[in-house]
Amino acid sequence: MPSTEVTFNRNEQLGSLLISLVVSAVMYGITSFQVYVFFKQDDDRPKDSKAMQGFVLFLWLLDTLQQAFVMQVTYWYLVTHFDDPSSLSHSTWGHTSQVFITAIMDILCQGFLIRRIWHRMSSSPSANRK
């Protein structure tokens, strides 16, 4: 029987992981700047409620935690198991945690958006017509 040898190309297998880390870090930086601007409001703009400030801070902390998980997964594959192609068939605790944190953030953000749309539609003049 002829044997087929499986080749491991790091560029194809792990290059996208490194690119994803860089893009994720840039997006995290943009998010952090937006949070800074949100809390550093001008005096002429009305302040948001404490609940809204807490919500923004909580989402930013979840985003920080997710970024840490992304870095842990990338480190695990690119440093700890650098020359071990079999490690690609294993999932780390960072993968599982990242999925869980992302789901929580998505539910919170979409719930907030639904709530805003609901309030806007119920307070619009056309909603009060019969």
TrEMBL record:
<keyword id="KW-0472">Membrane</keyword>
<feature type="transmembrane region" description="Helical">
    <location>
        <begin position="17"/>
        <end position="39"/>
    </location>
</feature>
<keyword id="KW-0812">Transmembrane</keyword>
<feature type="transmembrane region" description="Helical">
    <location>
        <begin position="98"/>
        <end position="118"/>
    </location>
</feature>
<keyword id="KW-1133">Transmembrane helix</keyword>
<feature type="transmembrane region" description="Helical">
    <location>
        <begin position="51"/>
        <end position="78"/>
    </location>
</feature>
<protein>
    <submittedName>
        <fullName>Uncharacterized protein</fullName>
    </submittedName>
</protein>
